[in-house]
């Protein structure tokens, strides 16, 4: 996104908020644009305003993620962690945010547990948590475990390009992959690339 596009987004978001100040989604949108513009003071107040107005559900989960990102930008990691955890407890959440924060803090064991907790709470929705956990294992030298997790994810969502690309990488990362495994990795990578030609994950 270019600076000019961000400026236009900010103008539109501010106009919407000014026109209908009691609409929670407009407070969240304005805060999100300000966060993207990397203002020195994160728009925590706007996210709190939106949070108070939303009922439980995916919209409130999204606001909690934005609020967590704002707290992280401010350096308040405890508050960020709390918001990401609460986001994971909302119905249909973005379940992996707490795990991602812990990964950024180089706390891999805690990140893995956060991903597992998210999967336990939302086994059919926490697709990003499955992928996060699998990648933790893969990059940690446990390709076999990563393969198991990606296979479980693909059993739920066979068309999911993220899982196809991840499984392809895990198969190649095996200590001694068989020719059959290498062939399958190539097939998965090509399928993922055809579905998501612009995705860096599919291209890697």
Q: Please describe the biggest sheet, giving its number of strands, its sense, and whether it closes into a barrel.
A: none
- In whole angstroms, how far apart are the ends? 22 Å
Chain-averaged pLDDT? 88
* Helix coverage percent: over 70%
The helix tally amounts to 12
Structure in words:
41% of the residues are buried. The two termini are 22 Å apart. Helix 2 (24-36) runs parallel beside helix 4. With 204 residues, this protein is an all-alpha fold. Helices cover 75% and strands 0% of the residues.
Can you give me a brief rundown of this structure?
This protein is mostly helical.
Q: How would you describe this structure in keywords?
A:
single chain; 204 residues; mainly alpha; 12 helices; elongated
Chart the SSEs and their pairings.
Layout: H1 3-19, H2 24-36, H3 44-53, H4 58-74, H5 77-89, H6 97-104, H7 108-121, H8 127-139, H9 143-156, H10 161-173, H11 179-195, H12 200-203
Helix pairs in contact: 1-2, 2-3, 2-4, 3-4, 4-5, 5-6, 6-7, 7-8, 8-9, 8-10, 9-10, 10-11
């Amino acid at each position: 996104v270019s600076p000019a596009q961000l400026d236009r987004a900010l103008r539109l978001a501010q106009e919407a908020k000014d026109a209908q100040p009691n609409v929670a989604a407009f407070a969240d949108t304005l805060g999100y644009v300000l966060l993207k513009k990397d203002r020195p003071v994160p728009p925590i107040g706007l996210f709190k305003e939106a949070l108070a107005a939303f009922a439980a559900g995916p919209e409130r989960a999204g606001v909690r993620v934005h609020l967590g990102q704002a707290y992280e930008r401010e350096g308040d990691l405890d508050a960020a962690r709390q918001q990401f955890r609460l986001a994971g407890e909302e119905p249909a959440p973005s379940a992996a945010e707490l795990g991602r924060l812990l990964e950024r803090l180089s706390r891999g064991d805690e990140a893995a547990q956060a991903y597992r907790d998210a999967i336990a709470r939302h086994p059919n929705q926490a697709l990003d948590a499955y992928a996060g956990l699998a990648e933790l294992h893969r990059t940690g030298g446990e390709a076999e475990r990563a393969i198991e997790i990606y296979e479980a994810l693909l059993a739920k969502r066979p068309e999911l390009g993220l899982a196809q690309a991840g499984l392809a990488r895990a198969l190649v990362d095996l200590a001694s992959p068989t020719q059959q495994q290498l062939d399958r990795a190539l097939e998965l990578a090509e399928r993922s690339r055809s579905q998501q030609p612009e995705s860096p994950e599919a291209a890697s």
